[in-house]
Write a structure and sequence with these properties.
About 50% of the residues lie in helices and about 20% in strands. By secondary structure, it is α/β, with parallel strands linked by helices. It has 2 domains: about 240 residues, Rossmann fold (3-Layer(aba) Sandwich); about 200 residues, Glycogen Phosphorylase B (Rossmann fold, 3-Layer(aba) Sandwich), CATH 3.40.50.2000. The strands form 3 sheets. A 7-stranded parallel beta sheet has the order 5-4-1-6-7-8-9, with helices on both faces. Helix 10 links the parallel strand 10 and strand 11. The protein is globular, with a radius of gyration of 22 Å. The chain binds 6-O-phosphono-alpha-D-glucopyranose (G6P). The site of 6-O-phosphono-alpha-D-glucopyranose (G6P) has 11 residues, from helix 1.
């Protein structure tokens, strides 16, 4: 294990968000793989993190200053353009191949304005905050995260040419960026290539970056699979909060579980229709198998996300109209409930259109107590590591997904136990500490 290091970690969302509950300040766990990674980094190294103030209470923390966290209270209009117009959906949709392209996107003057007055501006504010921290901590390594911050490394490099900069992209990297006009896409590549190291979860995304960047110069391109904090999950599994949630879960004969943010990349609507097809083509499962869908509401200020949430509700209602009670849909942010559901699934459905990694595919098998089967999209980064012990599906193929669910429900006990054990030991041996060490080793070599 390398020594403790001084790291300046920069991400849009920090590992926690502050809220005021009954007059008291409380820190709430941030969702997504990135937040997990940051918490892991904080435990092992000397981290100053720079993130956006996202809640009213974050803004209060930002105004007080001091402490380990630097929360930037951006201009609200600029932040809205950066987050709700450029980062999500534009960049997110490009990188998860979600644009249908027949009619959308259609970029007017307003998008160009959102780029300059939102994305560029917020990236500049991040870079300014980084430079201040670097001057306070000469020799610290700057560690940027994700698609919100593609331009910031160039701004920092211009101001501090000798700084040590790394960037981790947590989402897929496609080779086709033609939806985004030049010079915007040029700026994305230029910004990333201002880093000493650019890293991705999988070989597939790293290779796509290498293929599409027209020469990396002195930047090293690497890949390291993010993972979970194994000790944290094992502790959580037996916590009172999780045990209490377990008592509230449905207890059908067989349980299929999915846990996601309400994001179009997660392919929730197709998943519901695949389940419907399963009940239609294999009627022996009717009334015996239920699908529990635990969905964390996400990015609802963006029309495409709000529409997708409505489509999720409608799809569940139409399946339940045919097969009463078949889908138990719960849209809420309830982490202990998700862990409780992980312990009890017979089949875990992870069918994203595309996904950088997908930590559900690791968290579930780690805490499951029923030798449950993992049904996994070939386009999830996790498939590169876990595919051999999962049932692989194509996320567009409803029929294939229905058959995979049937195969999972019908698998014999010995085969299930063998696969579940293999998944568990893989995750135990490849936890988040290993991901961090890999990245820091890259930096030492750069
Ligand atoms: C994904 C992204 C993260 C993001 C998270 C939650 O995991 O890679 O960068 O923080 O989703 O999304 P949100 O928009 O709520 O931060």
């Amino acid at each position: 294990m390398p020594d403790r290091r001084k790291l300046i970690v920069v991400s849009n969302r920090g590992p926690v968000a502050y809220e005021r509950v009954d007059g008291r300040r409380v820190a709430r766990r941030g969702g997504g793989g990135l937040a997990t990674a940051l918490r892991g980094l904080q435990q092992l190294h000397d981290v100053t993190w720079i993130a956006s103030a996202m809640t009213e209470e974050d803004r209060a923390v930002a105004a007080e200053g001091g402490g380990e966290a630097v929360l930037i209270a951006h201009d609200e209009a600029a932040y809205d353009l950066y987050y709700n117009v450029v980062a999500n959906p534009m960049l997110w949709f490009i990188q998860h191949a979600l644009w249908a392209r027949v009619e959308s996107p259609s970029l007017g003057h307003d998008f160009h304005e959102a780029w300059h007055d939102g994305y560029v501006r917020v990236n500049r504010s991040f870079a300014e905050a980084v430079v201040v921290e670097l001057d306070n901590n000469p020799g610290a390594t700057v560690f940027f995260h994700d698609y919100h911050l593609y331009l910031a490394p160039r701004f920092v490099r211009d101001a501090r040419p000798d700084a040590r900069l790394a960037h981790f992209v947590h989402i897929p990297w496609p080779t086709d960026w033609t939806v985004l006009p030049e010079p915007m896409r040029g700026a994305v590549y230029d910004g990333l290539l201002a880093n000493d190291v650019v890293s991705f979860h999988t070989e597939r995304w790293a290779r796509n970056f290498e293929l599409s960047c027209a020469g990396a110069g002195r930047t090293r391109i690497t890949h390291h699979a993010i993972s979970v904090d194994v000790a944290e999950f094992e502790e959580l599994r037996s916590s009172d909060a999780v045990r209490a949630e377990q008592a509230q879960l449905p207890r059908p004969e067989r349980l299929i579980v999915r846990v996601d943010r309400t994001d179009p990349s997660k392919n929730i609507v197709r998943g519901f229709h695949a389940f419907e097809l399963l009940l239609e083509t294999h009627p022996e499962h009717q009334g015996r198998v239920r699908l529990l869908a635990l969905l964390d509401p996400s990015r609802q200020a963006i029309p495409a996300y709000a529409e997708y949430s409505a489509a999720i509700e409608a799809a569940a209602a139409s399946v339940n109209a045919r097969f009463p009670g078949a889908i138990d849909l719960r849209v809420e942010d309830n982490f202990p409930q998700s862990i409780a559901a992980f312990t009890r699934y017979d089949v875990l459905l992870v069918n994203p259109v595309y996904d950088g990694m997908n930590l559900v595919a690791k968290e579930g098998p780690l805490v499951n107590e029923r030798d449950g089967v993992l049904v996994l999209s070939e386009n999830a980064g996790a498939h590169e590591e876990l595919g051999e012990w999962a049932i692989t599906i194509n996320p567009f193929d409803l029929w294939g997904q229905a058959e995979a669910l049937h195969e999972g429900l019908s698998m014999d006990a010995a085969e299930r136990a063998h696969r579940a054990e293999a998944l568990r030991s893989h995750v135990r041996e490849h936890d988040v500490g290993r991901w961090i060490d890999g990245l820091l080793t890259d930096l030492d070599r750069s």
